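// run 5 | inverse folding | seed 20
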């Protein structure tokens, strides 16, 4: 059942809703020899129709390239074997690229390009193995760290299809939790509902899923304080990625929280109280948020221990009318 919170959010997410369900349904009816076109074609600029080996032997490329680094290029024809890295080289390439990223030796744009190149080599060789899962999972985690929602969404969409194969993948629930947090970010209500319908009771005991469900409950119930607090309380192995994903929603949820505070409080509030409620480390960060995001004059935040709710609420309403 759709929560009442979703009234105006449902229409704004028509482009992103049900994406995971669509991938799963389409993938289910695709012949085995064409499945990699579904799994990898969406991320490519040109679709390659992967026919069976009897129909077109040229498509069954077995790579021989040994380079660990390879820029991403758009493809217009089936590449030669020496232009494609085989799985064993891609495994080494993944380790190499991740090391450069973790050591800060390359900028994100370069790392992103290398991942696209690895994914392209997987697609060309129709590789849907454990290595494909590993590359997409690593790519998604790097995208979280780099605050790149578009790249993360490409990866999580493909992972959704790969996981749908039915094999027991060790990180499936972890990335299911990431999808929940991402759907909160894009306010994809139908995507969330589909995920929840598929979750088994035993899967809800997973620590990642439990965190994502806490975030969802706080978000859907307008519990802004609880939602914001969760961005600093994911104290479990791997929780940093959950906090990173949740932080993508912070600017929007802080705006909702500010409106709720100044609409509800009749008299005055202190800047310190607001800063703590919104999860800011200090009051200067909070005042910058009011000035840059809420378009509230800093003069209205004085004195800091006795801010007029009426005056600030009036200014917020004026800013909404003019934007």
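// decoded
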């Amino acid at each position: 059942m759709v929560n009442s919170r979703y009234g105006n959010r449902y229409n704004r997410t028509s482009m992103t809703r049900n994406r995971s369900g669509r991938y799963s349904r389409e993938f289910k009816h695709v012949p085995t020899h064409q499945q990699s076109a579904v799994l990898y074609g969406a991320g490519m600029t040109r679709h390659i129709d992967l026919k069976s080996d009897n129909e077109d032997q040229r498509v069954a490329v077995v790579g021989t390239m040994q380079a660990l680094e390879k820029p991403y290029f758009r493809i217009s024809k089936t590449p030669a074997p020496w232009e494609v890295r085989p799985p064993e080289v891609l495994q080494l390439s993944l380790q190499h690229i991740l090391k450069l990223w973790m050591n800060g030796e390359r900028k994100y744009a370069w790392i992103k390009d290398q991942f696209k190149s690895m994914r392209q080599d997987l697609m060309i060789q129709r590789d849907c193995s454990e290595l494909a899962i590993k590359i997409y999972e690593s790519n998604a985690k790097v995208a979280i760290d780099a605050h790149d929602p578009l790249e993360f969404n490409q990866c999580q969409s493909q992972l959704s299809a790969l996981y749908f194969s039915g094999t027991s993948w060790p990180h499936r629930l972890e990335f299911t939790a990431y999808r929940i947090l991402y759907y909160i970010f894009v306010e994809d209500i139908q995507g969330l509902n589909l995920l929840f319908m598929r979750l088994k009771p035993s899967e809800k005991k997973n620590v990642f899923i439990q965190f994502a469900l806490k975030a969802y409950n706080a978000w859907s119930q307008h519990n802004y304080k609880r939602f914001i607090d969760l961005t600093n309380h994911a104290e479990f192995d791997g929780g940093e990625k959950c906090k990173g994903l949740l932080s993508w929603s912070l600017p929007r949820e802080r705006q909702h929280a500010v409106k709720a505070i100044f609409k509800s409080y009749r008299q005055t509030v202190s800047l310190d109280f607001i800063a703590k409620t919104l999860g800011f480390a200090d009051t200067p960060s909070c005042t910058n948020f009011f000035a840059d995001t809420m378009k509230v004059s800093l003069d209205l935040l004085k004195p800091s221990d006795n801010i007029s709710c009426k005056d600030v609420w009036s200014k917020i309403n004026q800013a909404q009318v003019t934007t």
